[in-house]
Design goal:
By secondary structure, the protein is an alpha/beta fold. It has helices spanning 17-31, 59-70, 91-100, 115-120, 138-152, 170-181, 210-214, 238-245, 249-255, 276-279, 286-304; strands spanning 48-53, 74-79, 105-110, 126-132, 159-163, 185-189, 205-207, 219-222, 261-263. The protein is globular. It binds phosphoric acid mono(formamide)ester. The site of phosphoric acid mono(formamide)ester has 11 residues, from α2.
C-alpha cells in the first residue's frame, strides 16, 4: 500500500502530487475503520505519539489523539503551561528529552512559522506540523482536499475560492499548495489588507470582489479572521467585514452555483465570516471535513510509521 519516504510532515509545499494522492488514498481506506462497532485496529501497537500544542485547538488535537488511539498507539499530551518550558528550558532541549524517551512521533502546534522544520532537523522522532504560525497546517489542507475529492469526484480543474483572512492563514497556504499541485484553479478573495502582496506568485487568481469569487466556484472555503495573529486596523470593524465579505444565503443564491460546496476549517465565528443558515445549510460540508480529518490523520500517522510497522488493518 505504501511508498512513503519522509520522516516528517511539515507542509504541502514540499510534497509531490503523488505523495498527496498517496495520503488521500490511504485515508479512504482508513475512513471505514471509524464506522465499525469496534473502532480500533492494531496498526500502530507499540508506537508512542506525543501531542504538543502551544496554541488552543479542538479539531486538530482531538482528531490526532483519536486517530492515534484508533490505531492502538500510546498517546501522551504535554500541557505547555505545566512543562519545563515555563522554567526556561528551550524547545530544542525539551524535544531532545522527548527523543531520549524513544518517542516515535511528535505532533506540534506552535505560533512560530518554521519551528517544526527546525526541530525536525535536530531530533529523530517524526514531526507532524499541526499548524505553525501563518506558515502551514498540512493535515487541514489534506482533509479539505480529501473532502473536495470525495464530494466532487476530482480535484483537477476544480474551481476553489478561498475567502477571508488569507494573509494570516496557514490553512490557506496549505490549501493553495496542495490544490495547485493536483491541478485545481484557486481564487483568493478578501480585503486588500488581508491578501499578501506576493500571493499571485503561488499561481492563484486574486480578487477583492466577493461576487467574482463566488461566481463559477465549485467550492468555497471560508476562513476565520485570525485576530490573534493580526495587528489592529486592517479593516474598519467585524461588522463592516461581515457586510462586505461574510457569506450569507442571499449572496449564495445571487452569485454561487447551485451545487457549490461550502467549507470552513473551524472554529466558526457565526455572523462574521459565515451566517448560521449557511454553516448549517444544505451546501455545507463543514462536519464532513471533521469526519474526514480523522481518516486523514490516521493515514498520516500510518505512513510516517512506515518502515517500522507493517500494515495491519484487521477486522
Ligand atoms: N481547523 C483547526 O485547526 O481547528 P482547531 O484550531 O480547533 O484545531
Amino acid at each position: 500500500m505504501t511508498d512513503w519516504k519522509r520522516k516528517d510532515l511539515l507542509g504541502l509545499q514540499e510534497l509531490e502530487a503523488s505523495e498527496i494522492n498517496l495520503i488521500l488514498d490511504a485515508a479512504n481506506s482508513f475512513k471505514e475503520i471509524s464506522t465499525r462497532p469496534v473502532k480500533k485496529v492494531p496498526t500502530l501497537r507499540g508506537k508512542t505519539i506525543v501531542l504538543f500544542f502551544f496554541e488552543p485547538s479542538t479539531r486538530t488535537r482531538f482528531s490526532f489523539e483519536l486517530a492515534a488511539k484508533r490505531l492502538s498507539a500510546d498517546t501522551l499530551s504535554i500541557n505547555t503551561s505545566s512543562s519545563s518550558i515555563v522554567k526556561g528550558e528551550s524547545l530544542k532541549d525539551t524535544f531532545k528529552n522527548i527523543e531520549a524517551m524513544q518517542v516515535d512521533i511528535v505532533i506540534l502546534r506552535h505560533s512560530s512559522s518554521g519551528v517544526c522544520q527546525v526541530l525536525a532537523n535536530c531530533v529523530s522522532p517524526s514531526i507532524i506540523n499541526a499548524g505553525d504560525g501563518c506558515h502551514e497546517h498540512p493535515t487541514q489542507g489534506l482533509l479539505d482536499i480529501f473532502t473536495m475529492r470525495d464530494k466532487k469526484g476530482r480535484i483537477k480543474g476544480l474551481k476553489v475560492s478561498i475567502i477571508g483572512d488569507i494573509a494570516h492563514s496557514r490553512v490557506a497556504r496549505s490549501n493553495i499548495w496542495g490544490l495547485k499541485k493536483l491541478g485545481a484553479e484557486v481564487t483568493v478573495c478578501g480585503p486588500r489588507t488581508l491578501l499578501p502582496l506576493d500571493i499571485e506568485q503561488l499561481g492563484v487568481k486574486v480578487t477583492t470582489s466577493l461576487a467574482e469569487a463566488l461566481r463559477d466556484a465549485d467550492v468555497i472555503n471560508i476562513l476565520r479572521i485570525q485576530s490573534e495573529r493580526q495587528k489592529a486596523g486592517l479593516f474598519p470593524s467585524l461588522r463592516e467585514y461581515a457586510i462586505q465579505f461574510g457569506i450569507t444565503k442571499d449572496k449564495l443564491l445571487k452569485f454561487a452555483k447551485q451545487d457549490v460546496l461550502i467549507m470552513h476549517p473551524g472554529p466558526l465565528n457565526r455572523g462574521v465570516e459565515i451566517t448560521p443558515d449557511v454553516a448549517d445549510g444544505s451546501y455545507s460540508v463543514i462536519l464532513d471535513q471533521v469526519t474526514n480529518g480523522l481518516a486523514v490523520r490516521m493515514a498520516v500517522l500510518y505512513l510516517l510509521s512506515q518502515g517500522r510497522t507493517e500494515l495491519v488493518v484487521e477486522r
